[in-house]
Write a structure and sequence with these properties.
InterPro entries: DUF6459. α3 runs parallel beside α4. The protein is α+β, with helices and mostly antiparallel strands. It has a domain of 125 residues: Nuclear Transport Factor 2, Chain: A, CATH 3.10.450. The chain has a four-stranded antiparallel β-sheet with strand order 1-2-3-4, covered by helices on one side. The radius of gyration is 51 Å and the shape is rod-shaped.
Length: 215
């Protein structure tokens, strides 16, 4: 039996002959003059090697990142320089005059109120300085204090008929943003020290007390 294969039974071998591709018809050769590139700007080219410092000798990291000794180190602080506001001498004089007027008024009203509580001054005299609603609120306190002193005098309690000395120890006043003033004073009544605080408001060119606290 013959083992030879017929030539027709072998698989078809691929055609290894190179096929020539046709040159594209839309491409054209250019001359050397047309291939020349002209610079778009006249800026000088940057030397990348110089910028990157490739020619420098490597330095020790301690020396490389050492702070500059020529510049003075900057100190970090939370303090800020307050902006100084310049005021005219006329404004300063007006402020001092108003401050002195408010302090004097506070001392006068505070002493008058204490005298009204002691029964040596009519309380109605305070109506020119105190706002009407506040005046009626304080009136009940003054009348209660006067009645207690009257009853103590009728009972003949020791020292009930003696009028204590009144001395102003200190007065403070400060203006507010809305134009009002807050003031306080410390007053000595006999052997006892008392504190008075009030708020004053300008109404029709006249200062009036709109808040009053006494202790």
């Amino acid at each position: 039996m013959s083992t030879a294969l017929h030539e027709s039974s072998l698989p078809d071998e691929p055609d290894r002959t190179e096929k020539t591709r046709p040159a594209p018809s839309h491409l054209h050769a250019l001359s050397e003059q047309q291939l020349q590139i002209t610079p778009v700007s006249t800026l000088r080219a940057t030397n990348a090697r110089l910028v990157a410092r490739l020619d420098d000798v490597p330095r020790d990291p301690v020396d490389e990142y050492e702070p500059s000794k020529s510049a003075e180190p900057r100190r970090l602080t939370r303090a800020f320089s307050a902006r100084t506001t310049t005021s005219s001498p006329i404004a300063d004089r007006r402020y001092r005059q108003q401050l002195a007027s408010i302090k004097k008024m506070t001392q006068t009203i505070g002493a008058a109120f204490i005298e009204a509580e002691l029964g040596i001054r009519p309380y109605m005299q305070l109506s020119a300085w105190i706002e009407l609603e506040l005046f009626h609120k304080l009136r009940a306190r003054v009348e209660h204090s006067v009645n207690e002193k009257y009853l103590a005098a009728r009972r003949g309690d020791e020292g009930s008929k003696k009028v204590p000395s009144i001395e102003t120890l200190g007065v403070r006043a400060s203006p507010k943003a809305n134009g009002e003033w807050e003031s306080s004073m410390t007053i000595r009544v006999g052997q006892r020290a008392r504190a008075i605080a009030m708020r004053l408001q300008l109404h029709r060119n006249r200062w009036r007390v709109i808040a009053f606290e006494v202790g």
